[in-house]
Design goal:
By secondary structure, the chain is an all-alpha fold. About 80% of the residues lie in helices and about 0% in strands.
Length: about 50
């Protein structure tokens, strides 16, 4: 039972460290900034069924 708790604690700590690194270095915004032009081109080329 103690081995399972230690593994669970390690997994939770690793998850916290990874998410904190994403927050600290603002990686989510940098990812969106990198993907945005590709997604904009894709959605601009789609056919519209309604005019705005």
């Amino acid at each position: 039972m103690m081995k399972v708790l230690i593994i669970l604690a390690i997994v939770i700590l690793a998850f916290f460290i990874i998410t904190f690194g994403i927050y600290w270095f603002n990686l989510d915004t940098k990812l969106v900034k990198a993907i945005f032009p590709v997604m904009t081109r894709h959605y601009d080329n789609m056919e519209r069924d309604r005019k705005l």
